[in-house]
Amino acid sequence: VLENQDLQDSIKPQKVEFHSLNFNTTLHWQPGWAREARDALYFVQYKVYGQSTWQSKDECWGISSLVCDLTHETSDIQEPYYSRVRAAFAGVYSNWSLSHRFTPWRETVIGPPMVTVVHSNKCIIVKLQAPRSPYKRKRGSKIPMTNYYDLLYQVFIINNLLDEQHRVLVYEGKDKVIKIQDLRPGVSYCIVAKMYVPMLDHSSAYSSRQCTVL
User: Fold this and answer.
1) Could you read off the pLDDT of 127-181 as tens digits, one per residue?
2) DSSP single-letter state for residue 72
3) Which intervals hold domain Fibronectin type-III (predicted)?
4) What is the CATH number of domain 114-213?
5) How do the domains of the chain map onto residue ranges?
6) Which CATH architecture has domain 1-106?
């Protein structure tokens, strides 16, 4: 019996955590510390905080992977969720390992916008596109993150003559197309942008650089 108890403890999943980007939400965990844990199978359940019964996730029932996609199961983005994972090896089941409480709207990471740059005489036109969620409209297109939050675009310009690292904020607002004027011809400029959520005081990472020479 003791051996089974030891095995139960030593294969129990560790560090059960939600990771979420633009509401694409996955549950991650690490194997127990026993050597056998490398060959364990895992079982995932989830529920909304306050519910009494756990739901099993069929696609993550008896899997060898250390990750489970719960995007669809956490689509009510204002609700707080829990998830739990247990491991099995050689007919022995570990106890459940519980995640922290996870509320998608508060905790998902918002990604940077897509940036397109075109230049004309002495000015740069910047076109911005907000990241999209995995959730779809009836017609099938993915709903942008701007539907869920009051988001602002922050646009920065980098003058490569001066300093690669020096970003100057040139625009903050909701316009998807902006014009940066009075720039010097023959100079290489790069544009990066972020999404900013005033209500939560969160910023996304920077977009990738889009560079142009006037």
Assistant:
1) 999 999 999 999 999 999 999 999 999 999 998 776 667 899 999 999 999 999 9
2) G
3) 6-96
4) 2.60.40.10
5) 1-106, 114-213
6) Sandwich (2.60)
**Helix, strand, coil percentages in the chain from 3-state DSSP, rounded to 5:** 10, 50, 40
79-111: b (≥16 Cβ within 10 Å) or e: ebbbbbbbbebeebbbebbebeebbbeebbebb
What is the separation, in whole angstroms, between the first and last Cα of the chain?
76
Q: Give the integer Cα–Cα distance in Å for 18 and 15.
A: 10
Residue 157 DSSP SS3: strand
pTM: 0.88
- Closest C-alpha to 154, from 188, 112, 106, 105: 112
